[in-house]
Structures are given as C-alpha cells and as structure tokens.
Specification:
Layout (H helix, E strand, L loop, with lengths): L1 E3 L5 E3 L2 H11 L5 E2 H10 L6 H13 L3 E5 L5 E5 L7 E5 L5 E4 L2 H13 L10 E4 L2 H9 L1
Parallel strand pairs: 6-8
Antiparallel strand pairs: 1-2, 3-5, 4-5, 6-7
Helix pairs in contact: 2-3
Keywords: Cytoplasm, DNA-binding, Iron, Metal-binding, Repressor, Transcription, Transcription regulation, Zinc
Main location: cytoplasm
InterPro entries: FUR, Fur_C, WH-like_DNA-bd_sf, WH_DNA-bd_sf
Length: 141
C-alpha cells in the first residue's frame, strides 16, 4: 500500500509510518521526535528513533505536518490542521499554537522576492509570545 504525494510520486505506507501517523493523530500539541519515539515505545510499537526521524521528515516534506523550531533549535511536529499554507502564533512557555492566515505576509514575501529576482519562493513565519493563560499565571505570581 502506498500514499500518493502531491508531486505525483508515492511513499510506502509501512507499518511504522502508520504507527507514527496514528500517534500524531491522537495528539493536539506539538511533539519532539524523541518524545514521539518514547510514545511509540509505550504503545508497544517497534519503530527505531532513526526511522521516526525519517518518517517525520518525509511527512513534513509532503505537507502533512506543521514543524516548528524550539529555542534550542529542536524541531517539533504536529498534524496539520489546515491543508493550505499558514503561519503560527506560538506560546514560548506552554507551546500552545494558533494557526494564522496572513494574506499581507504572502503579498509582501512575493513582492520582496520578485524585487530581488527570486522565484519559486517559500517562507515560514512563526510569531512567539505568551498566550493569555501563561500571561495570567505570570501576572499572578
């Protein structure tokens, strides 16, 4: 069994890929590769850490996952809630994320790239701060 990609190719839908996909589908928050690997082991799945990395990279390249980089540079992943291009507002403390649409950013990126002779432009925007709940906890003490 294969999964069809956006580019017309196919990726094998292996037992390991299904296990990773099912684990991600059960989560709402972002998760690191190491934490996902630990979750898979807790569930009795035999997926190596290297395979987990490869599957997450593949799913990310196919647009199936949102990927953010933490302050330490570590990538964290979650299932894409939106199937179209979007950006994120992310809480630095708890990791809560809101998906944002930003047409003005899209227009600016296209104009700026064209002004410098760039084509086939892609971009990622992550806005970080404290969510309302973390801000309230901080104010309380």
């Amino acid at each position: 069994m294969s999964v069809r990609t956006g580019g017309g190719g196919e990726v094998r839908n292996t037992r390991q890929r299904r296990a990773v996909s099912q684990a991600l589908a059960s989560l709402e928050d972002f998760i690191s590769t190491q934490d996902l690997h630990a979750l898979l082991r807790e569930r009795g799945e035999s997926v190596s850490l290297a395979t987990t990395y490869r599957i997450l990279q593949s799913m990310s390249e196919l647009g199936e996952l949102d990927v953010l980089r933490g302050g330490d540079g570590e990538a964290i992943y979650r299932r894409c809630a939106a199937e179209h291009h979007h950006h994120h507002l992310v809480c630095r403390r708890c990791g809560a994320a809101v998906e944002l649409e930003a047409p003005s950013v899209e227009e600016w990126a296209g104009r700026t790239a064209a002004a410098h002779g760039f084509t086939e432009v892609d971009h990622t925007v992550e806005i970080t701060g404290l969510c309302a709940a973390c801000s309230a906890r901080r104010a309380d003490g």
